[in-house]
């Protein structure tokens, strides 16, 4: 895939905003943002009970994941796989977004669960590898020891290596054929492969290791935007969304993925400033390079862009509300997802 693809629009439709250093994503002016239907839908989204929705879905996802990764031979690899994929405190954002996008177009939750689980496996594998001493060198993840800290570098590498193909296999072997046609599944598999490959998340990790400060925007888009983009797109593909709708989901998911990471860095920096958190000291985070104030400005632009993309889905009524709610939650963090799961 070519470097991060941007939407191409006539220049008259582009907002002339003050240029930010290493701006992450372009923000377009929406001609529909003030329409009555959009205003009404956004208002409903602000009152949507995201906590209950997310918690209920996560309980189901955790059960499906537990069934998808049984301990087999050699047991130590499976135990390491389960340690990360079933970790307590995991937000399950990729699978929840996938299911929400599938349901937006009238798809069945049962059709989305296998892909949702696969996305969480892929996500867990990427975190296992990112935490390794030769990569980001993070001794902890979600308040618990990182996989390599418990199982060693060798088993952590093998666990990540095993989770990637297991995810693809799970999609093929567990997606109901009467709910999802085979061509849809092929597009889903291709989308996930693109996302994690050498021009996707791997490229982001490479630049996180080798790139200079000016690479931070690309790193954010590839390491974090790709997962959000892939999750939203896969949900739409499973439900047979039209190509223009898939591209709208792609831009939405990419913006939300970067927004979540950026908001995490802002919260971490503020907590550290207040003396409440040592943080992971990400040397190439947007906050570290450009400061909290600039990062907040970019975060608000990303929020606006994500919602603008969703405005094109108001015709689907209340089915779009969860996707709207994810955007505000990324910044506001009105509840803790991990703590909400029993």
TrEMBL record:
GO-annotated molecular function: metal ion binding; prenyltransferase activity
UniProt keyword list: Magnesium, Metal-binding, Transferase
GO biological process per UniProt: isoprenoid biosynthetic process
GO CC term (a single one): cytoplasm
Superkingdom as given in the UniProt entry: Eukaryota
A Pfam short name: polyprenyl_synt
Co-factor(s): Mg(2+)
CDD domains for this protein: Trans_IPPS_HT
Family, similarity comment: Belongs to the FPP/GGPP synthase family.
Protein name listed in UniProt: Putative geranylgeranyl diphosphate synthase
Gene source species: Lupinus albus (White lupine)
